[in-house]
Design a protein that fits this description.
The protein has about 450 residues and is of the alpha+beta class. It has seven helices and 23 strands. Strands 2-3-14-5-4-15 form a six-stranded antiparallel sheet, with no helix packed on it.
C-alpha cells in the first residue's frame, strides 16, 4: 500500500480510513497497534518538527478617523457621521479613543456604515422650458441655496426672482446658469444640468446613467443629515419633477464598555480615532519562533508580557513606530493576537514577518478523504506498521514476517529524520516471533 503525500495517522480510526476498511472490524487489533498510535501522538506533539513551521506577514494599519461621532454618557452605542467603518474593516480588534482623552474603549461590533441620501429629478425637452419662469432650487441643510436657471436663447439674463432666492439664502448661495440654447431633447438638457451641477461641487451630484432626461441626485456626504436637502422645481411643465434626497443613514458602532463623559462641553460631532490594537494570528498558530521586520526601514520590536503592555500603554501611547509587542487574546474572546506599542500613527504601513509553529491539522473522522497533516518523516514507518497489523488481523504469518522485515529496514531512515528535528531517543527496535515491540519507542520529556 502507499499513502498520499504528507499523510500520517492521528487516531485509531485513521488507520481504518486509510485502509478503506470497516472501522468496527479493526477494534480487536493487537495492543501493538495502539502503541504505534500513542508514540506517534507524542512525536507529533513535539514542536521541533520543521514540518510545522509556517510564516505569516503582518501589515500594520493606520488609525481611522474619518467623520465625527456623537457620544452618549453611559452609553455603548456611537453614531458616526460620514464614517465607513464596515468598509474600513473595523471590528473587535480595534479600540476607540476620543480626541483629547486617553481612555480606550474596545469595539464590540459595527452595525452599519453611513449611507448617502438620494433623490431624483426629470426635465423636459428644451422646447418646453421658459427661462423667465423655469428653474430648480436646491437647498442644503445649512440653508445654502443653489438655483439652476436656464438660458434658452443664449443671451438671457438671470431672472430677478432667482437673484432674490440667492440673496435670501445662507452664505455660499449662488445661481448656476445652464445654457440650453443648443439643446433639443430632455436628455440634452439633463446632460447640461449635470455638467454644471457637478462642476459646482455644492455637495450633491447628478448621474443620468440612462441619458434619458432623468437623473439620480446623490448627497456626497453620508449620513442622515443628507435627508435634509431639498430639491424643488419652479415651473408648470409636466416634464419637470423633483424628489428631495432621502434614506441617508448614519454609521452605528457598539463599544464593549460604556463611554464616560469627563466634562466635555459637547458630546456631538466629536473627533476620534479608531486604532487597530490586535492583529489576529493564524488559526493554526501554536508557538512563536520569531517576529522580524520585513525591511531595513522598520525597527525591531521586543516582546513584553501582556501585563507590561497594559501598564506601558496606560502611561503613554501617542502613536509611532512600534517598539514592543505582546501575545494575547482579543478582549472577550479566545482569539490569539499580537498587540504593538506604540500604535501606528502615520501613513506608513509597517511589515513584520512572523515565523511560528502550527498545530497539526485535525482529521475529521467522518471524512475518510481527509489528509492527515503530520511530519512526512513518519510516513514510511506508518505504512509498514499498518501492514504488520493487517497481516496479523488476516492471520497471514508469511505477510506478517515480510512486513516486519520491511519495517526493520525503514527504522534507520525514520530515526535519522526524527533526530534531525528534535532530541528524540529511540531504544533498539526488537523484533521476534512474538510480535513487533513498537511500544518500546521512548520519547524524551522535551517532546512528550
Amino acid at each position: 500500500m502507499s499513502l498520499a503525500p504528507n499523510v500520517t495517522l492521528q487516531t485509531y480510526l485513521d488507520y481504518a480510513f486509510i485502509r478503506n476498511a470497516d472501522s468496527a472490524a479493526l477494534q480487536d487489533l493487537t495492543e501493538n497497534f495502539q502503541s504505534v498510535v500513542n508514540a506517534l501522538n507524542n512525536l507529533a506533539a513535539d514542536p521541533n518538527w520543521q514540518h510545522f513551521r509556517e510564516e505569516h506577514r503582518i501589515n500594520t494599519v493606520q488609525p481611522y478617523s474619518t467623520g465625527t461621532v456623537d457620544l452618549v454618557d453611559g452609553g455603548t452605542t456611537l453614531t458616526g457621521y460620514n464614517a465607513l467603518w464596515t468598509t474600513a474593516g473595523i471590528d473587535s480588534t480595534w479600540v476607540l479613543k476620543v480626541d483629547g482623552e486617553d481612555t480606550e474603549y474596545p469595539v464590540t461590533s459595527v452595525t452599519s456604515d453611513a449611507t448617502s441620501a438620494a433623490g431624483a429629478m426629470t426635465v423636459p425637452a428644451k422646447a418646453s422650458i421658459v427661462s423667465a419662469t423655469d428653474w430648480i432650487i436646491i437647498t442644503s441643510p445649512a440653508g445654502v441655496v443653489t438655483v439652476i436657471w436656464f438660458d434658452v436663447s443664449g443671451s438671457d439674463t438671470v431672472p430677478a426672482a432667482v437673484t432674490a432666492l440667492v440673496a435670501g439664502g445662507a452664505t455660499g448661495s449662488a445661481a448656476l446658469e445652464v445654457d440650453v440654447s443648443g439643446a433639443t431633447t430632455a436628455a440634452d438638457v439633463m446632460a447640461l444640468i449635470e455638467s454644471v451641477l457637478n462642476a459646482a461641487a455644492i455637495g450633491i451630484t447628478s448621474n443620468d446613467a440612462a441619458a434619458d432626461g432623468s437623473t439620480v441626485l446623490t448627497v456626497t456626504a453620508t449620513g442622515t443629515a443628507g435627508n435634509s436637502w431639498t430639491v424643488v422645481e419652479n415651473g408648470a411643465h409636466a416634464g419637470f419633477t423633483a424628489t428631495s434626497p432621502a434614506n441617508g443613514t448614519d454609521a452605528v458602532l457598539t463599544l464593549k464598555y460604556a463611554y464616560v463623559d469627563k466634562g466635555r462641553t459637547s458630546l456631538s460631532g466629536q473627533s476620534y480615532k479608531l486604532i487597530k490594537r490586535f492583529y489576529v494570528l493564524p488559526n493554526n498558530f501554536r508557538t512563536m519562533i520569531s517576529l522580524a521586520p520585513a525591511s531595513a526601514s522598520v525597527g525591531k520590536v521586543r516582546e513584553i508580557t501582556p501585563e507590561a503592555m497594559r501598564e506601558r500603554s496606560q502611561l503613554s501611547d501617542n502613536g509611532g513606530m512600534p517598539e514592543y509587542y505582546a501575545l494575547l487574546s482579543v478582549p472577550g474572546t479566545t482569539t490569539k493576537a499580537i498587540r504593538f506599542l506604540p500604535y501606528v500613527e502615520n501613513t506608513f504601513s509597517y511589515q513584520y514577518d512572523l515565523t511560528y509553529l502550527r498545530w497539526p491539522t485535525a482529521l475529521d473522522v467522518n471524512s475518510p478523504t481527509d489528509i492527515v497533516d503530520w511530519p512526512p518523516e513518519l510516513r514510511g514507518l506508518l505504512e509498514k506498521a499498518i501492514e504488520v497489523e493487517v497481516a496479523r488481523k488476516n492471520k497471514d504469518p508469511i505477510a506478517e514476517r515480510s512486513a516486519i522485515e520491511a519495517l526493520q529496514k525503514e527504522m534507520p531512515t525514520f530515526e535519522r529524520g526524527a533526530e534531525a528535528h528534535g532530541n528524540h531517543v529511540f531504544s533498539a527496535f526488537g523484533v521476534d516471533e512474538d510480535g513487533l515491540m513498537l511500544d518500546r519507542i521512548n520519547i524524551d520529556s522535551s517532546g512528550a
